[in-house]
Specification:
By secondary structure, the chain is an alpha/beta fold. It has helices at 14-23, 31-41, 43-53, 65-72, 76-98, 132-142, 147-155, 160-166, 177-194, and strands at 2-7, 28-30, 58-59, 62-63, 105-109, 124-129, 169-172. The chain has 2 domains: 1-27 and 106-191, 3-Layer(aba) Sandwich (Rossmann fold); 33-100.
């Protein structure tokens, strides 16, 4: 089972691309979704996060996302420490998940695939890109964030250019669903040709 890493900056549309792979029958592991689940399900991880971020990181058993975002996006060192804790738990969970999958390849969807170093566990990598204005509009429509908050979060992410250089494949998500489907179909063909 080959592992194909799928990434993209906030609002680029990597989750939409992941869904297209899933619709074609390829198993998808969403690192971001699982990370949030593990942050509440995994007792050891939860305790480490409380030690790092303080008791306000949780309200009962619910993640206090706004509090955490305010803390980590204004302190680069804290962001790195939190990512390291969560990444370690996700990596173990992912290995267990892969062992139960069947087929030529599976998709590992992760927002910080390169930043976390988890791209090293992948056989191939794909980056989903989109113009910044489109990305901001997408995040505005799904989150209750201001443009300034979104721009601040974008500044904390690696640039699309840097990630494109490190990736094996690029998918451009220019808001045209048919074009996106064609790109994914073409990529599936390419990947299956490369994987014996």
């Amino acid at each position: 089972m080959k592992v194909v890493g799928l990434t993209g900056g906030m609002g680029a549309g990597k989750s939409v691309v992941a869904k297209l792979f899933e619709e074609e029958g390829y198993p998808v592991y969403s690192s971001d979704v699982r990370a949030k689940e593990l942050m509440t399900e995994n007792k050891e991880l939860k305790e480490k996060l409380i030690r790092l971020l303080g008791s306000e990181a949780y309200s009962g058993n619910v993640l206090n996302k706004k509090y955490i975002a305010q803390k980590i996006f204004s302190d680069e060192e804290l962001l790195k420490k939190q990512n390291a804790l969560v990444h370690s738990a996700v990596r173990n969970d992912f290995k267990d998940w892969v062992s139960r999958q069947k087929g030529n390849f599976c998709i590992k969807e992760a927002a910080i695939l390169f930043e976390s170093g988890s791209y090293k566990d992948c056989d191939y990598t794909i980056v989903v890109t989109a113009p910044e204005e489109i990305r901001i509009q997408r995040v505005l429509s799904r989150d209750k964030s201001s443009v300034e908050e979104i721009k601040k979060r974008l500044r904390n992410q690696w640039s699309q250019e840097k990630i494109i250089e490190m990736s094996d494949f690029q998918i451009s998500n220019d808001s045209n669903p048919e074009n996106l489907k064609r790109q994914v179909a073409r990529l599936i063909t390419q990947l299956n040709q490369r994987i014996p």
